[in-house]
Design brief:
It contains four helices and five strands, in the order ββαβαβαβα. By secondary structure, it is α/β, with parallel strands linked by helices. This is Anti-sigma factor antagonist.
Length: 121
C-alpha cells in the first residue's frame, strides 16, 4: 500500500510565557484521535500542574471529523475538571462552523493566534 499523500497528525508542545502550547498539524480524525489523546495527555501531565493555561494551536489543522470534535470536547472537560484554562487558537472557518452547528462553540475560548491567547492569559 502506498503512503504517498497519506494523512498524518503531528503534535508538538512547549512552555511559553507560563502557558503550555500544544500545536496540532494535519488531520484530527478517527485514525489519529489516539495519537492526539496520547500526546495531549503527555503534555498535560508534564506541565499543567504548574501552568493554569493550555493553548491548543490549531492553525495547522487541515481536517477535523466528529471523532476529532469528541477529542476537543474531552480536552474541554479535562480542563474544566482540573481548573486549567483551555484556549483554541487559530481555529479554521470550517472547524468554527462545526463547533457552531453542534452547539458547543460557547463552551470554548477561542483566540485568533497563539500570541493573542498568551496575551489574554
Amino acid at each position: 500500500m502506498s503512503t504517498e499523500g497519506a494523512a498524518t497528525l503531528l503534535i508538538s508542545s512547549g512552555s511559553h510565557g507560563g502557558a503550555i502550547v500544544v500545536r496540532a498539524v494535519g488531520e484530527l480524525d478517527y485514525d489519529y484521535a489516539p495519537t492526539f489523546r496520547r500526546e495531549l495527555t503527555q503534555a498535560w501531565t508534564s506541565g499543567t500542574g504548574e501552568s493554569p493555561t493550555l493553548v491548543l494551536d490549531l492553525t495547522g489543522l487541515t481536517f477535523c471529523d466528529s471523532t476529532g470534535l469528541a477529542e476537543l470536547l474531552w480536552m474541554l472537560r479535562r480542563s474544566q475538571e482540573s481548573g486549567t484554562r483551555l484556549v483554541l487558537a487559530g481555529v479554521s472557518r470550517t472547524l468554527r462552523h462545526m463547533l457552531t452547528t453542534t452547539g458547543v462553540l460557547p463552551y470554548f475560548t477561542l483566540s485568533a493566534s497563539v500570541e493573542e491567547a498568551l496575551q489574554e492569559g
